[in-house]
């Protein structure tokens, strides 16, 4: 019978589409994973992965094997996690996949207290603004805003229940260009725009007393609405243009006087984020502890 570690190595590599990605997720080296997969292929007498200099993909045999192994390894992991119930405190690794906004605006209120309450849990946070398959990324749970969830996912509120988008610019910019009095005035202003990882560039939406206004903005800077969002804020502070982002994100700059709020009565509200995870009967102890901690956190 093939060694369980070699089997786990194959599943990790096939799931993450390469040895480097699998190595990061399993805290091992790419060379160790490569050797483990070679041993498994030799033992089974069939190639499981097609390897090129740029990519790694499962063969037909590897794909069939992966389909059968994934639920089996999940069952083994759940069985081993039962031992956590006999510990004074749960232990193990918890992997969360979250967008940058959640890592910046939500998790700082939760993570320090959670780690203090459960020192034997290792929390790993992967920042990714795409809507991903949790199982494919090796994550236990994720945080997202208002996206549709698969039917087998459970979602619970995490963070503030209502948030707003905010509009702001620096005093220096406003002195040169004046203040907009209506969202339509933004068409005459320098707007620092953002693009989603999908490639879509969202329009700026506003709402006041049931009236909605959507503005197609223009400007010299476009940033990725994730990792590069702080560049738009820094540029706005330096006087380069008007920025449109989460209210909580801009509030510290407004409090310090580096940015001035614009059109506040038009700032649109939206529902806060959700923590989501596969709806299985038995949750791993670290995830169960995190869910309970989130449910007991006030906002």
UniProtKB/TrEMBL annotation:
<dbReference type="GO" id="GO:0003677">
    <property type="term" value="F:DNA binding"/>
</dbReference>
<dbReference type="InterPro" id="IPR058163">
    <property type="entry name" value="LysR-type_TF_proteobact-type"/>
</dbReference>
<keyword id="KW-0805">Transcription regulation</keyword>
<dbReference type="InterPro" id="IPR036390">
    <property type="entry name" value="WH_DNA-bd_sf"/>
</dbReference>
<protein>
    <submittedName>
        <fullName>HTH-type transcriptional regulator PgrR</fullName>
    </submittedName>
</protein>
<dbReference type="Pfam" id="PF00126">
    <property type="entry name" value="HTH_1"/>
</dbReference>
<dbReference type="Pfam" id="PF03466">
    <property type="entry name" value="LysR_substrate"/>
</dbReference>
<dbReference type="InterPro" id="IPR005119">
    <property type="entry name" value="LysR_subst-bd"/>
</dbReference>
<dbReference type="GO" id="GO:0003700">
    <property type="term" value="F:DNA-binding transcription factor activity"/>
</dbReference>
<dbReference type="InterPro" id="IPR036388">
    <property type="entry name" value="WH-like_DNA-bd_sf"/>
</dbReference>
<keyword id="KW-0238">DNA-binding</keyword>
<keyword id="KW-0804">Transcription</keyword>
<comment type="similarity">
    <text>Belongs to the LysR transcriptional regulatory family.</text>
</comment>
<dbReference type="InterPro" id="IPR000847">
    <property type="entry name" value="LysR_HTH_N"/>
</dbReference>
<feature type="domain" description="HTH lysR-type">
    <location>
        <begin position="1"/>
        <end position="59"/>
    </location>
</feature>
């Amino acid at each position: 019978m093939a060694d369980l570690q070699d089997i786990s190595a194959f599943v990790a590599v096939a799931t993450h589409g390469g040895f480097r990605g699998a190595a990061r997720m399993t805290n091992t080296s790419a060379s160790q994973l490569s050797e483990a997969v070679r041993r498994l292929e030799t033992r089974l007498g069939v190639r499981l992965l097609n390897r090129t200099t740029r990519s790694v993909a499962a063969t037909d045999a590897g794909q069939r094997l992966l389909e059968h192994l994934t639920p089996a390894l999940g069952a083994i992991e759940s069985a081993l996690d039962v031992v956590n119930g006999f510990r004074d405190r749960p232990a193990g690794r918890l992997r969360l996949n979250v967008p940058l906004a959640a890592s910046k605006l939500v998790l700082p209120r939760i993570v320090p207290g959670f780690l203090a309450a459960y020192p034997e849990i290792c929390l790993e946070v992967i920042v990714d603004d795409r809507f991903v398959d949790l199982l494919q990324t090796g994550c236990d749970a994720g945080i997202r805003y208002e996206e549709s969830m698969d039917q087998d996912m459970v979602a619970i509120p995490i963070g503030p229940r209502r948030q707003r988008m905010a509009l702001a610019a620096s005093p220096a910019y406003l002195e040169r260009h004046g203040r907009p009095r209506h969202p339509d005035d933004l068409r005459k202003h320098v707007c620092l725009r953002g693009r989603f990882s999908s490639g879509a560039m969202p329009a700026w939406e506003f709402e006041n007393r049931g009236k909605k206004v959507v503005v197609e903005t223009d400007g010299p800077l476009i940033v990725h609405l994730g990792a590069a969002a702080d560049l738009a804020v820094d540029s706005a502070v330096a006087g380069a243009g008007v920025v449109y982002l989460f209210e909580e994100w801009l509030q510290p700059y407004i409090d310090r006087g580096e940015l001035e709020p614009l059109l506040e009565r038009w700032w649109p509200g939206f529902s806060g984020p959700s923590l989501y995870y596969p709806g299985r009967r038995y949750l791993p102890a670290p995830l169960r502890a995190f869910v309970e901690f989130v449910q007991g956190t006030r906002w």
